[in-house]
Every structure is written in structure tokens, then in C-alpha cells.
Amino acid sequence: MKHAEAQRALIAHGYDLGKGGPSGKGDDGRWGNLSRTACAAFQRGRGLAATGMLDAETIKAMQSAMAERRPAAPGPVVKLPGFPKPATRRIEEIIVHCTATPEGRAVSVHTIRGWHIGQGWKDIGYHWVVLLDGTIAPGRPESQVGSHVAGRNSGTMGVVYVGGVAADGKTPKDTRTPAQKAALLALCRSLIQRYPAIRRVTGHNQHAAKACPSFDVRKDELGRLV
Ligand SMILES: [Zn+2]
Q1: What number of helices (H) and strands (E) belong to the chain?
Q2: Which residues lie at CB < 5 A from ion ligand 1?
Q3: CA dihedral (184, 90, 207, 200) positive or negative
Q4: Residue 207 pLDDT > 90
Q5: What are phi and psi of 85, to 5 degrees?
Q6: What are the chain's domains?
Q7: pTM value?
Q8: CB–CB of 26/18 below 8 Å?
Q9: How confident is the model at residue 70 (pLDDT cuts 50, 70, 90)?
Q10: Who contacts 108 (Cβ-Cβ below 8 Å, separation ≥6)?
Q11: Which of 55, 86, 106, 137 has its CA 20 to 30 A from that of 49?
Q12: Quick one: pLDDT at residue 171?
């Protein structure tokens, strides 16, 4: 494996190698500081000695990491509003939530932000909000670690749809409108395209004993995107 090839593998896994090379993302074949730092992080993630050097074991791990990658399932993507530049923090997973508000009730990003700030948080906990009509609205900047799932906020992106309980205000219910279903899929596909290190899309209920997001992501099209 040549240096440029290893750099392409690191870039595909979400590491930031700067701007050089044919792709403009740092695959210039020069094994400088950025490459060594990214390589060391990759090695650490795979349980190898974090030397930053391309030894035989690291090359093997990179080749198998590339072979494991599957392209995201095809379908519409959207141009994401609000955060023109992708975050440089490493993002490996999308976690889906609901606002736990009654079916059909419109809730704005402003309102959710108010709830979370009222709990003493610095901002809304989620990065993206899917409104009842399928509008995708930005929440907390992607560059910042969110506040949406205990113990798993770093390395993840939190997306939420408005709804998730029946009209009684308490019984968990998958209240996604057709527009919200389509928007959630397009949002997640776009995030996967934007952050190639994303390996899975999960629901909050896979990480905690909670109903949120009131459906099983593993049985949904969302769970099959990567
Ligand atoms: Zn949740």
C-alpha cells in the first residue's frame, strides 16, 4: 500500500488530512504530521501500537477496514441547511430520537432549544430536527458534541423527529408523517455521505431503556442505510 492509498483510506474513514493531493483532501503521498496523527488515531481505534507509521500490520488493518465499507443505500439526499462545512470531529453513528410530543402537535427548534436550555444545557441537545411537514432544521452545530444520549454523545450525531407519543401525550407511538419518514431517510443518507466514518444508524432505545424514538430502527429502512 502506497502512502497516497493509505491517505485515501484514512480520508474515507473520516480523518482530516488537510487539503493537498488529487482529491483536495490530503492524499498527496507525503507522510507528514496530519497523516501520522490520523494514522495513530486509526491504529489506536484498531488496538494497534499508535506509531503513526505505515507498518505491515497497519496496512493490513487499513485494507480490511476498506473492504468492510459498504456504500450507503441509494436514494434521495438533501442539501443540509445551516452547517456549510462538515465538522472535523469524528462521527461514527447517527442516533435517532423523538421529541415525545403528541401526534400532530407542531414543535419548533426554538421550543426544543428552550426546554434544553431550561434544563441547564448550553444549547438544544440534537443536531438536526425533522418537523411535522418534513422540514429539516439545524439544531446544535455539528462541530459540537451533542447532548442526546447518556454516555454516547461523542462520536455521534443526534437527529430527532417531532412527535413520538399518541394524542394522550404519554403512550409511545411511531407518529412519523410520510413527509417525516422521507426527510429522516434523506437526512441520514446525506449525513452518511458527508461523514464516511458513519458505520450505523441506531435508535435511542438501543442505548437506554427508553421508548424513544417509538420504533425499532433496526427494522426500519433507516437501520439499513449503512
Ligand atoms: Zn431520545
Answers
A1: 5, 7
A2: 97, 204, 212
A3: positive
A4: yes
A5: -110, 130
A6: 3-68 (no CATH), 93-224 (3.40.80.10)
A7: 0.73
A8: yes
A9: low
A10: 131
A11: 86
A12: 98
